[in-house]
Amino acid sequence: MASRKRNLPAKDAPLPASKLTRAAGEKRHVSALILARGGSKGIPLKNIKMLAGVPLLGWVVRAALDSEMFDSVWVSTDHDDIEKVAKSWGAEVHRRSPEVSKDSSTSLETIQEFVRINPEIDVVCNIQATSPCLHPFHLKEALEMITQKGFDSVFSVVRRHQFRWQEVKKGSGEETKPLNLDPGSRPRRQDWDGELCENGSFYFTTTDNLLTRGLLQGGAVAYYEMLPEYSVDIDVDIDWPVAEQRVLRYGYFGRATPEVVRLMFCNVSGCLTEGRIFMSKSGEEMVSVHTRDTAGIRMLQKEQMEVVLLTSKLDPVSRSLADKLAERTGCEVAEVGEEPLDDLRPMVKQRKLEWKDVAYMGVDAQDVKCLNLAGLSAVPSDAPSVAVNATKYTCHRAGGAGALREFAEHILLQKEKAKAQMEQHRIDRHDF
C-alpha cells in the first residue's frame, strides 16, 4: 500500500477546550483501539494468525463491536495484511506513522497519536489483540465504571495465588527473600486472597489522561477483575495449542450459537482444485487434488456430514472427470448454473434442511448469494475481493492447496464449541 500523507497535530498541541470539559448530559465519544503492529518478534504476523478458525485479531474486534458500547472500533497497524483482516471484521483502521511503528515505540505513543488525529474521541479503550477470551460483558461493565461511577482510568486484572521471591543475580552472593509471604506461617490457598495482577486485556482511559498527563493510568483509577479462565495472553508459539483449547471453552463466538452444519457444498474449480484443467495427448482431462483436502472431506464425512462437490456450466468438466472425483472423494458431484443458489435450493429443501444447516465454499462472484446465506461459508485466500467480502471465513491457504481442509477444521471447531456450550448449559442447570 502506498504511503499515506497526513497532517498530524503537533505532539505538544493543547487539547481543544471541548475535550477538557463536556456540557452536562452530553454524551462522550468512546472508542476502542486495538494495537496490531506487523513486526511481531515472537510470532510473525501473530495478530492475524488463525486461532480456532478465526484470525487472532477477529476475536477482540468481534467482542468490541458486539458490546455495543463504542462509537467507533479501530485497529492501529502498519501492515497491509492486518489492515485487510481488520476491515473484513468490521473495524476502522488507523495507519500509524513510521515514528510510532518502531521496535522501540510504546503503546502510549501510538495511542496518543491516534487521539490527536481523532480529536472527537473522549474515552479510549486500548484492547490487547492477544486476549481472545475477552467477552462483550467485560467491556460493558468496565466502561460503566467510567461513565456511571466517575473513574478516569479502568484496567483489567486477574487474581493470582503465587508466592514471589526476590531475584538473586548469579555471583552476587546474596540470598533470596520472600516478597509476599511469611515462610513461618505459610497460608493455605483458600485462606489467602492472592494478589491482583494486570492481565493486559484492556485499558480504558480519558484523552485528558493521555494528552495532558501523558498517562494510560491516571486520575481516579480503578481495576476490573476478570476470572482466570478469561485471562489468556498469547506471546509465544507454544501458547497456541493451549490457547486454542481455552478459546473453544471460554471464547466469545458471537451473539448467535455456533452453527452446526449437516451439509457442505464445495466448488471443485478454485476450491478443491487450483482451477486448472490439464489435458493429456489423448484429450483426457485431469485435475490436481491435494491429499490434505481429501483428508478434510473424510473428516467431515466421519462426523456424518454430507459433502457435495459443485461443477459449473460456466466452466464445465467432462462426465468422466466428474465420475473420477466422485469415486476419489466419495461425494456426490452436481452441476450448477450461473446462479448456483437456484440449483441448490431444491437440494437443501429435499434434505429437509435450512440454509443455517449448510456450509458453502465458493470462490467468485457467482457464489456471493450462497456465501451470504449459508450458516458457515468460506473462500480460499486467493479468492477475489467480491467473494472475500461476502464470506464469513477467509482461509489462509489457497484453492487446491489445503483451503478445503482448513475450512473443514473450522467447521468441526464450531461443532466442538456448540457441544461445549450445551455441556455448560447442562452443568449450570444441574448446579443451580
Architecture overview:
- This is N-acylneuraminate cytidylyltransferase.
- The protein has 432 residues and is an alpha/beta fold.
- It folds into two domains: 194 residues, Spore Coat Polysaccharide Biosynthesis Protein SpsA, Chain A (Alpha-Beta Complex); 156 residues, HAD superfamily/HAD-like (Rossmann fold, 3-Layer(aba) Sandwich).
- Strand 13, helix 10 and strand 14 form a beta-alpha-beta unit.
- It starts with 16 loop residues before the first helix and ends with a helix.
Short description:
With 432 residues, the chain is α/β, with parallel strands linked by helices.
Order of the strands making up the biggest sheet:
5-4-1-6-8-7-9
Q: How far do the termini sit from each other?
A: 55 Å
Largest sheet: 7 strands, mixed
Poorly predicted segments = 1-21, 425-432
**For the CA atoms, what is the radius of gyration?**
26 Å
Please name the CATH topology of the largest domain.
Spore Coat Polysaccharide Biosynthesis Protein SpsA, Chain A
Q: Any idea what the CATH superfamily of the largest domain is called?
A: Spore Coat Polysaccharide Biosynthesis Protein SpsA, Chain A
Q: Structural class of the secondary structure composition?
A: alpha/beta
Order of helices and strands: HEEEHEHEHEHEEHEHEHEEHEHEHEHEHH
* CATH first level of the largest domain: Alpha Beta
Tell me the count of domains: 2
Provide a count of the helices. 14
Which architecture of the largest domain would the CATH scheme give at its second level?
Answer: Alpha-Beta Complex
How much beta, percentage-wise?
15-25%
Keywords: Nucleotidyltransferase, Transferase
Region (Disordered): 1-21, 169-190
Enzyme class: transferase
EC number: 2.7.7.43
